[in-house]
Amino acid sequence: MNQTAPKVEVVSDRIPCLVATLIDRKLLLPITAVAEVINTVTMPESGNDKTPLYGWINWREQRIPLLSLEHAMGGGRPQLKFENRMAVINAIGDASGVGFYAILLQNLPTPIQVNTESIRGGEGETAALVVANVTLGEEQMIVPDLLAVEKVVKGFKKGN
Known about the structure:
Layout: E1 15-21, E2 26-30, E3 34-39, E4 45-46, E5 53-59, E6 62-67, H1 69-72, E7 85-90, E8 100-105, E9 110-114, E10 119-121, E11 130-136, E12 139-144, H2 146-154
Parallel strand pairs: 6-8
Antiparallel strand pairs: 1-2, 1-9, 3-7, 4-5, 5-6, 7-8, 10-11, 11-12
């Protein structure tokens, strides 16, 4: 007797995300974009204060750039502190040659499941490097345009 189980397609309407804190706003990142969240163990090799690049850090035997997303979006550049965290982001677009890059966070991100019922369009104009402003619960957040961020990262050369 040869019976096959019927194929059942289960499509989840939930997207696993991380809520990450910058100095002046919160990010909503798809969890698949984040390779790892790490502590600030060592200060990066110095970058130019006029750019969003803090410098280069060693992560899993690779040198990757550490970026101030606030500065890349036109804001101020927060001071690096040992209590900061960094999100290591998988590069899939223009910066894929780099492989990964890190963005400075203010604390440990919070995992969350997002679906169409839990998220609403946010208020305000969309800033540079931002796909959307959203409201999750009572909190305003931004969804970064990671492909646009990679264009910024691509401009950094090792040793700059």
